[in-house]
User: What shape does this take?
Amino acid sequence: MLKNSQHSYGWIAIAIHWLSAIAVIGLFALGYWMLTLSYYDPWYRLGPWWHKSIGLSLLALTIIRLVWRWVTVRPELIGSRYEKFGARVGHALLYALLLVTMVSGYLISTADGSSISVFDWFEIPALITTIPEQEELAGDIHWYTALSLIILAGVHALAALRHHFWDKDATLKRMLKPQK
Amino acid sequence: MKKLLLAAAVGAALSGGLSQAQAADYVIDMEGQHAFIQFKISHLGYSWLLGEFTDFEGTFSYDEANPGAATVNVTIDTASIDSNHAERDKHLRGDDFLAVDDYPEARFVSTSYTESSDGKGVLAGDLTLHGVTKPIEIAVNEVGAGPDPWGGFRRGFEGKVTLTLADFGIDYDLGPAAKTVDMYLSIEGIRQ
Assistant: This one.
């Protein structure tokens, strides 16, 4: 039940998927909102603190997720040849956008060599500080990939709903609860 | 008598023209990094935030015999703002402050220089910042001039001016103590 089977996701994959979904939506909304705050707003400093802490946690979770995806069996995709192809491309893009968004975010805050605090619990040090105009370039990439990610996640959700209500198959159900 | 007056007037005009021609032109030494444009702004009224523009270029002309004819022209790359904090610099380059995508350059063009006897002076000119051009007056101190050890001739000035951010359309609220920013300029020119 923890691991994936040929036909369904296990609890570990399900938990990581929905945690990631909540984190992505929350991070996008928080990131958008925190840029509108005035200097004297109590969230002017708290917003970025949560955004960076959750973002780096999600990056770690995503790396674990990819390893888990690699070591466990993947449930077979449901649908026509074209749907399966579309699903593969879509999922690969989601992973790519997740990683590029989070890494570019990390590169903004560490551009001057500063480390990033994760929940004031530990610090992630800077690794790359030498890209010209790093915080600007990383900032642009961060915005456009985050926007693409949230749009593609919406398409992903619509596709799941289509499978559930239109095709009436187990695509969505097996991501909610392991199926026999 | 009339002819004499005319000759005197022509002579004066000529010598004026000559001294004008002798006014030395200097290029601000960016290659050797002997020029600085720094700023200081209050943080909440409790401390100072310091930073600088690292990338700019400019020229000036100055004639010791006729300092009133001095001119200065400086162009600043606004994206080169550096306050030693990447996240803050990114914010400062953004639309809340310098909007460097829209206004990549700031420019100062002098309009007059008034020198007093003690090596100080007031440099008036137009500053274009954030797309807004305003006359400003920089309090100048003549630091020194003379031959350098490598065969050239150098001349340096420092200047101070306080800018009100709202005058230049920068109105992000940093609090009542941070309405103005103090600029400190230190430039060294190499005579051409």
Helices of chain A lie at 11-34, 43-71, 81-109, 134-166, 173-176. The two ends of chain A are 9 Å apart (CA to CA). Chain A is about 65% helix and 5% strand.
